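ok trying this again, last paste got cut off
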Amino acid sequence: MHPRLIVESILPHLGAIIGLALGFVLIARLMREKRRPSNTFAWLLLIVLVPYIGVPLYLLIGGRKLARLTQDKSSLSLLALSGENNHVTPSPFGLIAQANRTQFIPTGTEAYQNLVDSIQAAEKSIDITTFILSHDAVGRRIVKELAKKARKGVKVRLLIDAIGSWGKKTLYMLELEKAGGKIERFMPVFPISFPGATNLRNHRKIAIFDKSRAIIGGRNIGLDYMGPTVSPNRWQDLGVCVSGPAVMALNAIFEEDWAFASRKRGYVPQPQPAVAADPSHESVIEIMASGPDTTGDPLYEKILSSIQEAEQSITIVTPYFIPDDVLLRTLIVKARTGKNVTLVIPRKSNHKVTDLARKHFLRQLDEAGASILAYQDGMVHGKALLIDRDIAMTGSANLDLRSLFVNYEVAAFFYTEQDIKEVGNWIQSIKSRCLALSAEELEPRRAFKGVAEDLCRLITPLL
């Protein structure tokens, strides 16, 4: 056959041929990755059955722990810090620090005032990373305060997620750069250097002042999360201010994230200072990072092991509840063996898809004897875990597949009686405004709504 005829016969099918070849490449890559079976199966179905959607979607958001990204972004090893301070010791999951001081931040007004006061009191440096920096009165005020400190010679660095703060680098933020502060975006929306990494978002919330005092928790910076006055529409959340050796781990986490975001400018991670302990402070805190820059899934593994070891009670507060099979089955077994398992969620979250997807999991927990409590007065955005009054946790991670296996997250586990009591008190304040979900509310929907629930549950591995 004439070469021209061969070309003409192939051209109409070239797109399909390329798509098929790319599909095989992606399937091979997918099978090599360490994913949950449900996640792998969901992507396989999408790529094979709807390649024109599945292939580009996987290239955009299919990444989890990309080898090239891991090489480009230094993997976090908090264990190395243990040699710098005798009040810091390694753990299988993170870094345990003793002799810390804590101040829990249960309300949005306290969170706002604490953040403003901390910025104003900083003398040398301010490092802030947030998923969302809202373009509202709170966002503008915080940027204005940061700009004031930058003009006075304080080293100010602001790291925002490119998707979480989409389009937020507007004129009011440029005021900070003009004042000498630095702003970086974490992971471009369309990361050409790392195909598939659009899915990998920095969900961490950390604010560090003078390398010795830090605020972590679930709050972003905006009116939904904090403000100078009480608001009935404000989301319920929890944060904690920490000073002491535990801040060393937070300094390391921020520094690695900043270096990755500003790598094209030639920035490399800088050594972080040791933070002195104060023997008068008693808080024992385990700082844990989780995400593509960690080995394994330490936060998930720590939560799972803590639940498995529970002897009396397990209380979880989360805005979105989409567990994997192992975590769900562990909670079910605990409930069926007489342990007091309580899950606190908002009656309606800000994501309809996750509300529909969670129904399947809630029904199974309810049938096992767990208590499902729904917050009635708006949105609960806080994340908390309480085990037997022996361990408490808060941080940036929700109890869903995205936070546990995909996002960059940070959490603090508390082992001191007073800290555990503080987390318990906040949980109790949320529970006091909850009602138990009835069996009728958890019943499977029929017709269209039932189909919608099933579809949302099927796509949860891709969320």
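PB: full thing came through this time. DSSP finds 16 helices and 18 strands in the chain.
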